[in-house]
Amino acid sequence: MPGDVIHLNVGGTRFSTSRQTLTWIQDSLLSGRILSLKDETGAIFIDRDPKLFSVILNFLRSKDVDLSGISLSALKHEAEYFGITPLVRRLVLCEDLEHSSCGDVLFHGSLGPPCPPVPEILEKKPVSQSTSNITRSPQHTTQAHARSQSMHVNQAPPDKMLLPELLHVLDVSDVLGYLNPLKVTMVQGHHNWICISYPHFVCCFRMKDSTGWHHIWSSPYMENAVDRVALNAKVVAQNQENTNKMVAASMGSFVQLWLIMDDGSSREIGMFDLSVSVDSLFFIGSQLVALSQFGKIGVWHSMTQHWQIQDVIPITSYDTAGSFLLLGCQNGSIYYIDMQKFPLRMKDNDLLVTELYKDPSEDMVTALSVYLTPKTSLSGNWIEIAYGTSSGTVRVIVQHPETVGHGPQLFQTFTVHRSPVTKVMLSEKHLVSVCSEYNHVRTWSVTRFRGMISTQPGSTPLASFKIVSLDEVEEQASSSTGNDFGPYGEQDDQQVFIQKTVPETDKLFIRLSSNGQRVCVISSVDNSSIAAFCVHECEGSNRMGSRPRRYIFTGHTNGTIQMWDLTTALEMMNKSDGEPRKGGPTPEELMKLLDQCDLTSRNTTPSISPAPSVLQVPMGPTVSYQSSRPNSIAMDSDAGEEDGNYYPDTIVTKI
């Protein structure tokens, strides 16, 4: 009967109401669709939160909602479970009051994904038969991006741009599962250009003063997945104007290099083989450098157009300073190569690799950072090098005028880490080190006199915090490069960490590298997951008074690129000095981020740090698989590949 009294037992709390109250919303679970279990008193038992249910029941009685002390998202979740559609609509509207698809004050713009190239086997007119090696980008490259736009309005949605045959070809084996062909895997920037990597092609965008960003060029379809990319937007060569750019992409042991013109035309320079997997790819001046953990260096010299491979000690870290490449190796030594002079030994025509320093304990050099003091260079009077080792030691060595000709001298030693050091950064004001235990960060303030590091009063401890970044168990080879957390920024400026807590998330936490304080939180404007990111400083326009600005570029699983104004974020934070600031995600924020994740661990229980067995091999190869939802995440985040990271050879399995 409509007037019957219904007794409910919700999570141990008893409620009594009428049948009419429970059934006036059709198709809700309370209208008879819920599984009816009864307790010992005959009351209908519902295993849900009684506090939230009391709010829902009050809405059913009076159509009134009391949100005092209630989480809006939790209440919406319960209302969705019970199927209380009118309440869900109201709560969604409340959430939309603070959310805009145009982003917040830090949002700078968005770039739509380019149309992916078609594999040669699907092309109607195979261009491979053409005798010309010049290719032009498609007509849509003339579309300009306006700051107020979130995507080109005349561009087809990503799912409409792919042929069914292309989707079939891009689908990988049953073991790996489906690989999204428009998922951004890496973002690299140089001057006013950015290079975006997708699984099977790369593309370039260029920023113009008045018209914004333009899609300039896309590579042909590459059969193997792209592992690394490098961009040089300022190629200096003899007898040519400075208008050409270079883009390189590595796939396994192969490196493909293109020359790009400003009008979008391109020429493939060549395909080079390092014979082992390429772990790092970058430019030093006009020279392209490929490094492998197994002790091989590949160098393409722009003047001689020559590709040369050099065998060295297994490489565990690297850094660049001016025209110099510094290598930290497994034997505890630091070596350097002058890429500008490109010296070759007369007897065998090999690269001239010079030993600069050897660690007193002969521990593996797992992180490197070089600081060139003002008014000097690596070939000048004063250089400073900070490095970390596999034993957790951080050392600072210096080359000063009194020791010229005798090599750098040990200046300071810190033994605060109990796990291998994965990153180190020596800047004008701070020394920052990171170890493999949940990216534990230690920072020190650096005292300088006339620009040079000083012992009076010396480096003093500043902060200790963690940049927790949980790894996907089955990740692609490019994941660590595309999600490198930093620190980002020039050594004489404020540097930041980019914290991506879980693999599939639409949020990034931006934090100061010096003390871990939160600068801002970036949330994707279209709720798409952030797949890759980088920080890049773009040059100011030619107008008087225009200064370079720093931006965060985020690449997403739907192929879009979103841009965020980091310069404004830092200025806003500096203006609010004195106010208490958060660091990384709070426990409440972290629990929300972990909603769709399953956690596993590399560690041996109950050990806190990784077992020694997983740390025996330096710079071990990355195991690449495609994970399925819900995510299974490795709780130890010691994998990384750029800027002197440590590479343990581990395989993580789901529990």
UniProtKB/TrEMBL annotation:
A family per Pfam: BTB_2
Subunit structure: Interacts with HCN3.
Region (Disordered): 129-153, 620-648
GO biological processes: protein homooligomerization
Domain BTB: 4-100
Listed GO CC annotations: plasma membrane
Name of this protein: BTB/POZ domain-containing protein KCTD3
Lineage: Eukaryota, Metazoa, Spiralia, Lophotrochozoa, Mollusca
